[in-house]
Amino acid sequence: MDIALEQVGYTYAAGTPFQKKALFDVNVRIPSGSYSAIIGHTGSGKSTLLQHLNGLLKPTTGIVRIGDTQVTKETKGKQLKPIRRKVGIVFQFPEHQLFEETVLKDVMFGPLNFGVKEEEAKARALRWIERLGLPEGTAEKSPFDLSGGQMRRVAIAGVLAMEPDVLVLDEPTAGLDPAGRKEIMDLFYELHEQRDMTTILVTHSMEDAARYADHMIVMHDGTDVLQGPPEEVFADAERLARWRLGVPRTVSFQRLYEEGAGLPKGPPALTEEQLAAYLAADFAKGGGAS
Amino acid sequence: MMEKMVFGRYIPGDSFVHRLDPRSKLIFVFIFIAAVFLANNTVSYALLLAFTLFSILASKVRIGFLIGGLKPVMFLIAFTFLLHIFFTKEGDLLFQLGFLKIYEEGLRQGIYISIRFLVLVLMTSLLTLTTSPISITDGLEVLLNPLKKVKFPVHELALMMSISLRFIPTLMDETDKILKAQLARGSDISSGTMKERIQAVVPLLVPLFVSAFKRAEDLAVAMEVRGYRGGEGRTRYRQLKWDWRDTTALLILLAVIVALWFLRG
Amino acid sequence: MERILSLQDVRFTYTPDDPDGRYAVDGVSFDMQAGEWIAVVGHNGSGKSTLARLMIGLLFPQEGTVGLFGDPLTEDNLWEKRSQMGMVFQNPDNQFVGATVQDDVAFALENNGIPFEEMTLRVQGALKQVKMDSFLDHEPQHLSGGQKQRVAIAGALALRPRLLILDEATSMLDPQGREEVIRVILDLRERTGLSVISITHDLEEALLADRVVVMNGGRKFAEGTPQEVFLKGEALTALGLDLPFAMRLSSLLGEQGIHTEPGTMTERKLVEQLWTLRSNR
User: Fold this and answer.
1) What is the pLDDT of residue B178?
2) pLDDT tens-digit series, residues A91-142
3) How many other C-beta atoms are found inside a 10 Å radius of the C-beta of residue B15?
4) Residue B1: is its pLDDT beyond 60?
5) Which of C110, C124, C159 to probe by mutation at the B interface, max B CB count within 10 Å?
6) Does residue C140 register a pLDDT over 80?
7) Domain that holds residue A274
8) How far apart are the first and last CA of chain A?
9) Which residues lie across from B11 on neighbouring strands?
């Protein structure tokens, strides 16, 4: 399911002395089946943009196309619900949305709201609870008796059980320890690969964007300033710095190495494995010449 | 809607009124409220109205903004006005249309009550518009200090108030976030039967309570670690300063009261 | 050297009545000298935050002793000891007590009965140290997470503490916020020689410390200089911790047949070795 924003603008509290322009002239296309990363400094409009992806906010100007549905200023609230079934959002600190007596009920909440039958909702919930690597018997526990990391997984299961076509992730690993972080990010990547799920990651981590995304959208001061594959976005560190963004550590290390070794700038190494391979290739060429 | 509300809103500024000590403003408003009931004839009511206008001018709050924001109250004033007009049957008959009869005394009482209502609302609004909630709290704490003698927990109350004020924006933000997260999970608060709507609030309220309790717990720990053990032996960082402005304001009020006393019938 | 903190065989459980109950902290001992910076690392649930709470008397151990500034910590000297310590917690919102930045910094001073004139000086000074002195009247909802944490640090500094404990103070911040806070702490340590205990799961942060204590399952798993500790390599990864970038890269390079010196922890040192290796080919 393609998502496209055409000349989208959004103003908070429009028509009052407190109005604030959060987005203007945003033109973004997220192809079906892609893994897109949205990056931008705090206050760049990332989170306002994210809320347009499933109709939590309606644009004050312009059009948001989600599959065959259009959302504009005029769209009625009722028409938004079908969109929300297709686009699931894992918000930052999603464990704050848990409320049911048991984990099972909480995970079933989304599917039931979207008209999935009780039986099916339960089967889905149990499947996703297991898929998220939660220990046996978790389904019957109260979500509030779990550890922070487990609560996070339950909340994620609650979104995945809706089985959306598009999954939007807003800093899904904030506050987790390194092992937990990697497990969750790898899981999302697997889902993306296996189910061809369109995935949109909003993140501060350039490393995650470089490692997982195939498409990137850079936001700055309320509008999109650059879109393209990570190789292209991370090739020019100075340009990113102007938007108060950095490059992944692999790239900064690579540039440092190239500079000291008197090499021209190569294509950016997006993962540590790529960086190691790049360095090995340079060594194999018998770099001693310089 | 909410943006235009005047009640409880603070608009920073540096007018004469803004710079008054919260204590003098609180005392001023309390005495003024009592003084309003002295007025009982046209001259004294006119004086009240004039004095209120003068106070608004001294605060540099835009009159248009005040009136615009007081629309809901205006309705109430109009309602009391009509009540008096139609139900007071004293004095000369001024006007008659079918069964509607308006008497002179009714009109007079209607106008008086409306003015009384209006100046009360304007003056109290002026207090909150020109004084930050935290200053009001400070002022109240100092003014209520004598009550400590009868074991009234003045300090605790003031601290509670200031912490609540501090967390209102945080919790509003939180409510918005949770609401959006549940909407994204297909929760629907704006449609359905009454019962369904009430049920739809549970997914919002439970997380909100959980988070508020968690915050309260964290805050209590943070306060303890920073050496908080009640009001005993504490010093105050927020100092209130009483200067010539405060004395002047209260003297002017005194003059107005004296004038009211002589002008009333 | 003066001993700031000394833990001896400290054991603590949240369920003392349960004979099979797990000990959240299970026989931990270590000492800290004045001016040291110690990082306590471990994954979530390793007992590191419980340890922090034991150090400032929010919890008392069932066994063993916690010594602060030369005396064992007791219910009687608790408040006096606390007045010499500062602690910054994880959630920037939930520790901001005051209505504005300056009120919040003054909070601990008010509690300790510092006179008004002295307070204004200290509030100003503390905010200058964390570079927040131009935000005196800002309300918390208009500050970023990193700024709030810097205010929290200023609130601790205003008391002129001998020991500052950071309990995962950077874990909820974005990269910019984290960098701001770390820069402030580095700067403080350089200029004032403040003793710092930083509880963290960020090993890059731990790299900056003089000494690292690794916690696992309530026990001390390892202790030593960052160099010594990180040489354990895979044993740490197995605990759910992440090695510093330079070490991960070194090990990947090893697989490619490029061998750098073991225990190279900073990117600068690694790149220098690579340059040398390259030109010697």
Assistant:
1) 94
2) 999 999 999 999 999 999 999 999 999 999 999 999 999 999 999 999 999 9
3) 13
4) no
5) C110
6) yes
7) 248-290
8) 51
9) none
Q: B227 CA to chain C: closest CA distance, Å?
A: 6
Domain boundaries for CATH 3.40.50.300 within chain C = 3-232
A–C CB contacts, 8 A cutoff, strictly below:
93
Domain shared by A197 and A254, yes or no: no
Among C65, C64, C59, smallest CA distance to C47 is for C59
Size of interface B-C (CB pairs under 8 A): 88
**Residue B189: band (very low, low, confident or very high) from pLDDT cuts 50, 70, 90:** confident
Q: What is the mean pLDDT of residues A175-200?
A: 92
Interface test with A, best of B5, B176, B185 (most A CBs within 10 A): B185
Instruction: Report the C-alpha gap between B54 and B48 in whole angstroms.
Output: 10
pLDDT at A289: 45
Lowest mean pLDDT among A266-275, B79-88, B236-245: B79-88
The chain-wide mean pLDDT, for chain B, equals 88
Backbone φ and ψ of A91, nearest 5°: -75, 165
What's the CA gap between C109 and B228, in Å, rounded?
Answer: 10
CATH of C3-232, one of 3.10.330.20, 3.40.50.280, 3.40.50.300, 3.40.50.1970: 3.40.50.300
Chain A residue with the nearest C-alpha to that of C250: A276
Q: What is the pLDDT of residue B239?
A: 87
- Helices A249-261 and A272-284: angle between axes, nearest 10 degrees: 20
Residue in A91, A109, A113 closest to B177 by CB? A91
Contacts of A211 (CB under 8 A, 6+ apart): A185, A248, A270, A271
Kindly list the residues from chain B whose CB atom is less than 8 angstroms away from the CB atom of residue C55: none
> Which pLDDT score, from 0 to 100, does residue C189 have?
87
Whether residue B2 is predicted with pLDDT greater than 50 in this model: the reply is no
pLDDT of residue B8: 64
Helix (H, G, I), strand (E, B) or coil at B97: strand
Write down the pLDDT at residue A19: 77
Q: Which helix (H) or strand (E) holds B74?
A: helix B71-87
Q: Which of A198-207, A252-261, B182-191, C269-278 has the lowest mean pLDDT?
A: B182-191
List, in order, residues 6 or more apart from B262 with CB less than 8 Å away: none
Catalytic residue flag (residue C75): no
Judged against a pLDDT cut of 70, whether residue B144 lies above it is answered with: yes
Number of compact structural domains in chain A: 2
